Amino acid sequence: MPKQFILDLVADMTLEEKAMQMTQLAPEFFYHKEPANLTGPFRQWRFEEDQLACMGSTLGPSGASYLRRLQEDYLAVSRQKIPLLFMSDVIHGYRTVYPIPLAQGCSFDDALVEEAAAATAKEAAAAGLHVTFSPMVDLVRDPRWGRVMESPGEDPYLNGRMAAAMVRGYQGTDLKEKGRIAACIKHFAAYGQPEAGREYNTVDMSRGVLRDFYLPPYQEAVKAGAAMVMTSFNLVERVPATCNKLLLRRILRSEWGFKGVVISDFAAVDETMNHSVAADPEEAARKCVQAGLDIEMMSGVYASALKKLVEEGRLAESEVDECVIRILELKDRLGLFENPYKDADEKDEKTLLLCKEHRALSRKLAREGMVLLKNNGILPLDGSQKIGLAGPFADTGCILGGWHCEGKVEEAVTLRQGMEESLGRKLPVGMSAPFLYTERHDVPDDVCGALDALSDSQVCVVAIGEPQWETGEASSRTNLRLTPHQEKLVHALKAAGKQVVAVLFTGRPMEIAPILEDCDAVLQVWFPGTEGGRAVSDILFGQYNPSGKLAMTFPRNVGQIPVYYNHYQTGRPLVREDDYFTSRYLDCPNSPLFAFGYGLSYTEFTCSGLAASPDGTQASVTVKNVGARAGETVVQLYVRDVSASVARPVKELKAYRRIALEAGEKAAVSFEVTDDMLGFYNEEEEWVHEPGWFDLFVGLDSERVEQVRIYRK
Ligand code: BGC
Questions:
Q1: The three-state (H, E, C) secondary structure of 230-255, written as one string
Q2: Ligand 1 pocket: which of 87, 89, 188, 295 to mutate (most atoms <8 Å of CB)?
Q3: Residue 685: CB partners within 8 Å, gap ≥ 6?
Q4: Can you tell me the distance from the alpha carbon of 478 to that of 145, in angstroms, rounded to the nearest whole number?
Q5: How far, in Å, from the CA of 267 to the mean position of ligand 1?
Q6: CA 297, CA 285: separation in Å to the nearest integer?
Q7: Which of 696, 703, 658 is nearest to 113 (CA)?
Q8: Tens of pLDDT, residues 173-227
Q9: Which of 518, 477, 475, 481 lies closest to 374 in space, CA to CA?
């Protein structure tokens, strides 16, 4: 039952005020300026001054002094004095930028991810924000889609754990507490599988696939207590998520018991008309409200239509009230009725933003998310070698990645700075000019110059990848190869007899097979954030032993996409290469270039002796560091249901543990195998655990595993 003062406020509200409480706009509207960076069909919406005096929340800008003033100016003109809610995209850090979420997924380190989210919340709260549009936990299998960088990866279980960690980090246990902000899970649901990887494209999947893979991460975030959910742009079973009753009423609210606020994505209420499920704003508004969509982001459909709909009896006022109550309850949970400014504080901004502790945390998480893909022994480098540096990421702060919020490229540590700091000497640098915003988005071809600059270098660290502005929203591609001039640089250095260490700065798995041969080592560093240069350097020089594992499969080529580890089995699986009529390609193996869970270390680990308890409720292995240095690895437990009422994936990650071992040390690792790990949604969409045979797999990646069969009653 809502609190009485909330019911009183709602009873006192006019329909126009309710509609505006349910409308989110950029603050520029309030100040009557033409808003910057508007996309979509926004320009058609115009708001009257008295409407803007009762809008419910804002999107975008932050900063303690700006948001305090905005709240003050707003409360001065607002009749009911209901404080504004300030929301923004604080995706992987506020001013201190942490590695992109895909890299965070590769850390398999929930505790550190939670810590980074908590530090992010402190900065964002000091800057006056109340809600972040994070975590984004759309499951991703298609690196053509630019937004894979925003997701922790391709696995429902890993994404779920990361989602929960981020929610705990942002929110803590009490949103009123200083330094806490509300989390908004997005994009509900299944936005991660646009057809052909093309942004905003149609999504079409079976209910079983939705249940098996796509829904669990959002559900984990709900269980962790996320205060808000954002709907996705796409269709789910032919209905836009924005007005999808199956998703919002049945699954989210009824099955999962979500009591928080649901917001649309940018202008998506308006876009239901493009999806051809609404002929006009009134129909769009009615459908969205009836589905339980509380806030419309950045379009004016609710503002223009709700009053009329209620007055004409096409929408019950109680349906509108339901949304308004939820919004006011969130404001109450954040303590805004007592203190509308919450934690906005210029002094705190000065001490917290980009503070030493946050930078150190960012460096730590960046290192853990980096994945060593290849190493013929050249790494770690020995400082006495003649080392040179080349490539567009050699000396740039453009390593923060998309959605870097208030992060500034000039505050990021470049790779050159990081390496020179470690070495204590200057490095020769070649071909480091940035990407050109031309049709090809390549870097200028200065391979000759690079060969010249690095003529004395025996080891060349080649910092290559994709520009950070080519990842994130609206950044789909059909070609995932490195640009021609970057590939040429690698080949030329190799041909000149150099040892080549490729450091890949990308927001997605790219097609790196064409350069792999010519690289002696490949380190995937994603977009590592503010301390990126130092974090990479820590690994290159062995101050940190790499431990990241791939959260997303690397394809051999674009034609293999989607390629992911937890697929269903075909009736004709490829067992023998010479068996023609099996599920395979003529021109490419089925296996990926690098599988989910894969990642090398400077030491070597073995994982052996998998045994299950007689009742199949425990699985244990021995993990041993058989190399010469201390290191960390991630032990992974997968299951497969051998015979079920519906087909089950060939493997599903169900548990993992990050462990640290000294050289020569071994550890027994055991996992509990719960009923929940073996359950699934059956054809009737009931969560069931069907007794029978299951295979358990344990290993240090998804391919090289030991296997044991268990029977479970
Ligand atoms: C994106 C969301 C984001 C929103 C607000 C949209 O275009 O899809 O992820 O939260 O804008 O910036």
A1: EECCCEECCEEHHHCHHHHHHHHHHH
A2: 89
A3: 207, 211
A4: 9
A5: 9
A6: 12
A7: 658
A8: 999 999 999 999 999 999 999 999 999 999 999 999 999 999 999 999 999 999 9
A9: 518
Nearest-angstrom CA–CA distance, 207 and 374: 39
Does the CA dihedral 514-520-524-527 come out positive or negative? Answer: negative
- The residue to which tokens 């550890």 are assigned: 667
* Predicted confidence band of residue 33 (pLDDT cuts 50, 70, 90): low
Tokens encoding 261 = 């606020």
Q: Which ranges in the chain are annotated with CATH 3.20.20.300?
A: 4-348
CA 57: distance to chain centroid? 24
Any idea which fold 4-348 has?
A: TIM Barrel (3.20.20)
Residue that the structure tokens 């073996």 belong to = 678
Q: Where exactly does CATH 2.60.40.10 map onto the chain?
A: 605-712
The CATH class of the 362-553 domain is alpha beta
In the prediction, which pLDDT does 440 show? Answer: 73
When pLDDT is averaged across residues 488-495 and rounded to a whole number, the result is: 98
| Coil/strand/helix, residue 261 | strand
Q: What gap in Å lies between CA 70 and CA 237, rounded to an integer? A: 41
- Mean pLDDT over residues 311-318, rounded? 98
Counting ligand 1 atoms within 8 A of each CB, the residue from 184, 473, 475 with the most, and so the one to mutate, is 473
Q: Check residue 41 and give its pLDDT.
A: 45
**Model pLDDT for residues 371-383, shown as the tens digit of each residue:** 999 999 999 999 8
Whole-angstrom CA distances from 352 to 120, 124, 182, 310 are: 10, 10, 19, 47
- The whole-angstrom separation of Cα 119 and Cα 351 is 12
Q: Which two tokens stand for residue 59?
A: 């999107």
265 lines ligand 1 (CB under 6 A): yes
| End-to-end Cα, the chain, rounded Å | 42
**pLDDT at 439 (0 to 100):** 64
Q: Looking at the annotation, which residues are catalytic?
A: 265
Whether 473 lines ligand 1, by a CB cut-off of 6 Å, is: yes
Q: Where are the alpha helices (DSSP H) in 382-444?
A: 415-423
CA distance 190 to 173: 28
- Please report where in the chains the tokens 């591609």 appear, as a residue: 477
Give the tokens for residue 264: 């649309």
The one-letter code for the residue type at 355 is C
Phi-psi region of 465 (alpha: psi -120 to 50; beta: other; left: phi over 0): left
β-bridge pairing 429-430 and 459-465: unpaired
Write the DSSP assignment of 470-487 as a string of letters: GSSTT---S--BPPHHHH
Residue ranges of the chain assigned to CATH 3.40.50.1700? 362-553
Tokens in use for 601?
């270390």
* pLDDT for residue 571 is more than 70: yes
Mind listing the pLDDT tens digit for each residue in 392-415?
999 999 999 999 999 999 999 999
pLDDT in tens, 625-648: 999 999 999 999 999 999 999 999
Other beta carbons less than 10 A from residue 179's beta carbon: 18
Fold of 605-712: Immunoglobulin-like (2.60.40)
**How many whole angstroms separate alpha carbon 478 and alpha carbon 275?**
24
Residue 89 in contact with ligand 1 by CB distance below 6 A:
yes
Residue 348 main-chain phi, psi, to 5 deg: -65, -35
Report the atom number in ligand 1 closest to the C-alpha of 150.
Answer: 9
**DSSP readout, 575-617?**
-STT-SSSS--SSS-SS-SB-TT--B-SS-EEEEEEEE-TTSS
